[in-house]
Design brief:
about 160 residues, four-stranded antiparallel beta sheet, about 40% strand
């Protein structure tokens, strides 16, 4: 019994980390890194993207509105949230994939009112970042995913 356990343990340890194929992991992204300036030369004062949803109740009709604005930093955006008498701000930080950033806002699935703020990666796939919603007239922002890009440079010898 001890030999069998030892053999299984050995096989398990040897099999760990043997899969070096990053293309099987759907969340892994391999890109050729280009230099995109960290700061914008000009900032668009208008909203880059806006999501609006009308919320009707027995007494009133209100608008839930989320807008994304450019900031001085290329990969940071300002999120402005408006609902009823509330005006709040948050930030959206997106990774540098070596392409110009492209942000998106999509309708939330289950909670009303809600929306999902994210960005398009180099394959034009929507990557969720934050869920913004109201629950019992309280604003909630839930981080759905964290993203990062690493770059490696080989040493010239």
């Amino acid at each position: 019994m001890k030999k069998g356990f030892a053999i299984l343990s050995m096989l398990f340890l040897l099999s760990c980390g043997t899969n070096n194929n990053a293309s099987e992991n759907k969340d892994s992204v391999v890109v050729n890194y280009k230099n995109i300036p960290e700061e914008r030369s000009t900032i668009n004062p208008n909203a880059v993207k806006t999501y609006a949803e009308t919320v009707k109740s027995f007494e009133t009709t209100d608008e839930f509105k989320v807008s994304l604005f450019e900031t001085k930093k290329t990969f940071n955006y300002l999120i402005r949230i408006e609902y009823k008498q509330l005006n709040e701000e948050d930030t959206l930080r997106i990774p540098n994939f070596g392409i110009e950033p492209s942000v998106e806002i999509k309708r939330g699935d289950s909670i009303r009112p809600s929306c999902i703020v994210g960005f398009l990666d180099e394959k034009k796939q929507f990557r969720e970042s934050k869920l913004i919603f109201f629950e019992n007239d309280v604003l909630k922002v839930k981080v759905l995913q964290h993203y990062a890009v690493s770059t490696y440079q080989e040493d010239a010898k």
